[in-house]
C-alpha cells in the first residue's frame, strides 16, 4: 500500500477518516505518520492513541520560516511517504517540503477553489452570500490554495447557517471526498502534467 503522512493543526477529523478508511486492508493507502505544527492538536492525540507515529515542528521554535520548513521536510522524508496530505494543516508549506515531494502533496480545502482560498474559507463564503460552497482536494504548489484541482463536491448554504454549522456540513462531504480522491490517486497514479514541480522551478 502507498505510504501517506498526514499534516494537521487541530481536530483532525479528516485524518481520522483516513485512518478509519485505511483500517480496511483493501484501501490502497496507509497512514504511516501524522505531523503537526501544534503540540496540542487533538488530531495528534488521536493518532497516538491509534499507535501511529507522530511528530511536531512548531514554527515559533525555529529561528525563521525557512528553518521550520527544512525541519518539516526532514521529518517527512524520514517517514518515506509516497504522498503527503495536508488535512486541516493551517500553515503554508515551504519550498523544502514541496521540492522533497514534487507533485506528491495534497491539500483539502473547505470551499470550491478558486473561490475563497485561505484560512477563513467558510466565513468568507457566508459573507459573500453564495448559495453553494463545497470542498476541494487539490495538489499543493507554492501558492495559497492555488494548485491543480483533483476533485470537488458542492454543499448548499442553508438560510440559517452559521460558520460552525456550515463547516461541519462541508467536513462531512470533505472527509468522503478526501478518502475517495486519495484512494483513486494512489491507484491511478498522476498524469505527467501534474508532476512537473521540480527543485529548479521558480517560487
Ligand atoms: C477542514 O475543513 C480543512 O479543509 C480546513 O480545516 C478543516 C480541518 O478539519 N483547512 C483549511 O481551512 C486550510 N486552509 P479537521 O481538523 O476536523 O480535520
UniProtKB/TrEMBL annotation:
Keywords: Purine biosynthesis, Signal, Transferase. SUPFAM superfamilies: Formyltransferase. Coiled coil: none annotated. Residues 3-182 form the Formyl transferase N-terminal domain. CDD domains: FMT_core_GART. The record marks 145 as: Raises pKa of active site His. Its EC number is 2.1.2.2. Pfam families: Formyl_trans_N (PF00551). One of its GO terms (biological process) is 'de novo' IMP biosynthetic process. (6R)-10-formyltetrahydrofolate binds at residues 65, 90-93, 107. It is an enzyme of class 2 (transferase). It catalyses: N(1)-(5-phospho-beta-D-ribosyl)glycinamide + (6R)-10-formyltetrahydrofolate = N(2)-formyl-N(1)-(5-phospho-beta-D-ribosyl)glycinamide + (6S)-5,6,7,8-tetrahydrofolate + H(+). The active site is at residue 109. InterPro entries: Formyl_transf_N (IPR002376), Formyl_transf_N_sf (IPR036477), GART (IPR004607), GART_AS (IPR001555). PROSITE patterns: GART (PS00373). One of its GO terms (molecular function) is phosphoribosylglycinamide formyltransferase activity. One of its GO terms (cellular component) is cytosol. Pathway: Purine metabolism; IMP biosynthesis via de novo pathway; N(2)-formyl-N(1)-(5-phospho-D-ribosyl)glycinamide from N(1)-(5-phospho-D-ribosyl)glycinamide (10-formyl THF route): step 1/1. The keyword Transferase applies. The keyword Hydrolase does not apply. It comes from the Bacteria. Belongs to the GART family. Catalyzes the transfer of a formyl group from 10-formyltetrahydrofolate to 5-phospho-ribosyl-glycinamide (GAR), producing 5-phospho-ribosyl-N-formylglycinamide (FGAR) and tetrahydrofolate. This is Phosphoribosylglycinamide formyltransferase. It comes from Modestobacter italicus (strain DSM 44449 / CECT 9708 / BC 501).
Amino acid at each position: 500500500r502507498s505510504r501517506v503522512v498526514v499534516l494537521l493543526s487541530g481536530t483532525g477529523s479528516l485524518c481520522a477518516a483516513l485512518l478509519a478508511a485505511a483500517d480496511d486492508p483493501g484501501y490502497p493507502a496507509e497512514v504511516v505518520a501524522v505531523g503537526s505544527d501544534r503540540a496540542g492538536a487533538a488530531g495528534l492525540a488521536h493518532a497516538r492513541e491509534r499507535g501511529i507515529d507522530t511528530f511536531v515542528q512548531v514554527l515559533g521554535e525555529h529561528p525563521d520560516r525557512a528553518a521550520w520548513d527544512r525541519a518539516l521536510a526532514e521529518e517527512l522524508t524520514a517517514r518515506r511517504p509516497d504522498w503527503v496530505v495536508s488535512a486541516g494543516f493551517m500553515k503554508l508549506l515551504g519550498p523544502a517540503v514541496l521540492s522533497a515531494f514534487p507533485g506528491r502533496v495534497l491539500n483539502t480545502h473547505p470551499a470550491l477553489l478558486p473561490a475563497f482560498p485561505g484560512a477563513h474559507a467558510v466565513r468568507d463564503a457566508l459573507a459573500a452570500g453564495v448559495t453553494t460552497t463545497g470542498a476541494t482536494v487539490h495538489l499543493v504548489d507554492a501558492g495559497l490554495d492555488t494548485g491543480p484541482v483533483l476533485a470537488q463536491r458542492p454543499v448548499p448554504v442553508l438560510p440559517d447557517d452559521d460558520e460552525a454549522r456550515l463547516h461541519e456540513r462541508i467536513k462531512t462531504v470533505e472527509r468522503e471526498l478526501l478518502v475517495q480522491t486519495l484512494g483513486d490517486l494512489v491507484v491511478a497514479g498522476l498524469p505527467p502534467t501534474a508532476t512537473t514541480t521540480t527543485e529548479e522551478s521558480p517560487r
